[in-house]
Design brief:
By secondary structure, this protein is α/β, with parallel strands linked by helices. 28% of the residues lie in helices and 35% in strands. A seven-stranded mixed sheet has the order 5-6-4-3-7-8-9, with helices on both faces. Helix 5 links the parallel strand 7 and strand 8. Helix 3 crosses helix 4. It is globular. The model has no long low-confidence stretch (mean pLDDT 96).
């Protein structure tokens, strides 16, 4: 992705101070999603890395990750795998837990969403501390699927989430 495209995408992301709680600066991507040219450029930049690599599925993490993953899946001609918070999927699931600042949380996906024949890419909006992304990658790996990598719109470099994902092929469009 060219520096001009990156700058254009960044210009459409708005900082929202003290959301969802005091001291957090939330990166609001809804202006980017609402701009057809920016949304297309973002989708193209995510999909470009995996074009021609035989991707069969794109997994997206609830909830904003669903938006990016579905667009990338469409662009790549692949299926979509929703990774959801515990208790949201109606059939047999696989579960992976991860640490939070205080406690743990879990994510799930349908047990039959992918298998050993699948070639999967994980897509999410933000990589922060890396806990959720790591859990999602571990969840996909449990199925025997070949995980080709993970792509993020935004990487919050100061939170060092990439360190929790050592050994995985990672790609972030924008860095803060």
């Amino acid at each position: 992705m060219s520096p001009a495209v990156a700058a254009s995408l960044k210009s459409r992301i708005q900082d929202v101070p003290d959301f969802p709680k005091k001291g957090i600066v939330f990166k609001d991507i809804t202006p980017l999603l609402g701009d057809p040219k920016a949304f297309a450029a973002m989708t193209d930049a995510i999909a470009e890395r995996y074009t021609g690599k035989g991707v069969t599925h794109v997994a997206g993490i609830e909830s904003r990750g669903f938006l990016l993953a579905s667009a990338a899946a469409y662009k790549l001609g692949a299926g979509l795998v929703p990774i959801r918070k515990k208790g949201k999927l109606p059939r047999k699931t696989l579960t992976e837990s991860y640490a939070l600042e205080y406690g743990t949380d879990s994510i799930e996906m349908h047990a039959d969403a992918v298998d050993a024949r699948s070639r999967v890419v994980l897509v999410d909006d933000v990589i922060a501390t890396g806990g959720t992304a790591r859990a999602a990658l571990e969840l996909l790996t449990k199925t025997g699927a070949k995980v080709l990598g993970a792509s993020f719109l935004i990487e919050l470099d100061f939170l060092k989430g990439r360190e929790k994902l050592a050994g995985w092929d990672l790609h972030s469009l924008l860095h803060y």
